Amino acid sequence: MLNKRNLLRSAYFFRRKVAMGKLWVGKKTGIVRKIMVLPFKGFGSNHEVFLIGRVIKDRGIKPAEEGHGRWKNFKSMYKRFMSWKIPNVRVRASFAGDVQTVVTDEEGYFEFKLSPKETIEEVGDVRKVQLELLDEVVRRQGKVTAQGKVFIPPSTAEFGIISDIDDTIVPTGATRWYAMFQATFFHNALTRLPFPGVAEFYKALVQGRDEKPDNPIFYVSSSPWNLYDFLAEFLEIHHIPKGPLMLRDIGLTREQFIAGSHELHKLTQIEHIFEVYPDLKFVLIGDSGQKDPEIYLQAVRDFPGRVKRIYIRNVSTYKREAKVKEIGQELRKLGVEQVLVKDTFIAAKDALKEGMIVKENIGDIEEKVVD
Question: Phosphatidate phosphatase APP1 catalytic domain: which residues (predicted)?
Fold first, then answer.
């Protein structure tokens, strides 16, 4: 009789064989003709930068346009989730004199930890990493390159911001699977709308007290990497400050039926950011619908003195709200205030009171929320 471990191992190797067979058929039949290196925006310091990405079949997904209907949106999202990943191929990265080569994993992902050999004179800007696929996947594929981007915050940053996405920036119904399915598959970056005032509030936080866009912002979400380009496009269209998106792989692995839990993924990424920027304190923004309060509480326990403020958008039932308030009491004992809010303007007023944003920006946030 199969135990869970053996069942998992069998399922994993069966899935691997199917994926390898699918790729072989795709190359033989010409379905897989064009390969792309898809980098995800990285981050780091002038000592070390981190960049991950994926090698996949070029999906040919075009930016969202006015008039795209539900079927067009569904087809684009289907392409994102039914990607043809390219495992076991070499990718080379070049950045500030450091050149490294890595091999993609079973899901086509690659990861670089680059150490600049040249002095980066001006930090606080997006830097480019040159990427090149070194192996031939399909015949006559030509040269396959891409430019990755890494963000290096300036030394003048007052604090950092780490935000969730689902039900924090944009309504998704993350606790209701059908509502989330509808929002994900039948809308696009134009028709998905953020909560009122989010763009203005995040801009105000990024600008801080000196009104210079120095404060780095990071987006940590349990959404799959398949949605990376969609979420990046969403942020740009709705004028929400850009920052690294730290998503997760939800595929089957040797160890788990679903790779990485929601809580573990988010906590690991948040604490990684803390470690990369040991001199920065952070504002954490999330919602009450899933486990953001619990995750943020653990982050405060693990890294005392690193969190300035926590804002939680209240999207829950009365029972869950009571639990979130209990967590707020625990956080207060640790010296961190959790502010439970019903809208963005309430969070902005608190941030103004705490001296994290300036009064000149409050009017724009209030106008968006009241409208």
Answer: 159-314
Nearest Cα neighbor of 116 from 127, 101, 104, 105 is 127
- What is the C-alpha to C-alpha distance for residues 18 and 371, in angstroms, rounded to an integer? 52
60: number of Cβ within 10 Å: 9
Indicate the pairing of strand 98-103 with strand 245-248.
Answer: unpaired
The pLDDT value given to residue 323 = 94
What phi and psi values does residue 287 have, to the nearest 5 degrees? Answer: -135, 165
Residues 188 and 282 in one domain: yes
pLDDT, tens digit, for every residue of 139-151?
888 899 999 999 9
Residue pair 61/74 in contact by the 8 Å Cβ criterion: no
* 8 A C-beta contact, residue 281 and residue 256: no
Three-state DSSP class for 180? helix
Q: What is the torsion angle, in degrees rounded to the nearest 10, for the CA atoms of residue 250, residue 252, residue 255 and residue 258?
A: 40
Neighbours of 278 (CB within 10 A): 9
Burial class (CB in 10 A: 0-12, 13-18, 19+), 73: buried
* Element (DSSP H or E) covering residue 50: strand 49-57
Q: Is residue 139 located within the same domain as residue 277?
A: no
Domain range for 196 is 160-370
**Alpha-carbon span 257 to 270, nearest angstrom:** 24
Residue 194 burial (CB count, 10 A)? 21
Distance CA 219, CA 243 (A): 7
User: Can you give the CATH number for the domain in which 164 is found?
Assistant: 3.40.50.1000
Is 77 part of any domain?
yes
Q: At what angle do helices 228-237 and 70-81 cross, to 10 degrees?
A: 130
Convert the pLDDT of each residue in 233-266 to its tens digit: 999 999 999 999 999 886 544 334 345 577 899 9
Would you report the helix, strand and coil content of the chain in percent, each value rounded to 5?
35, 25, 40
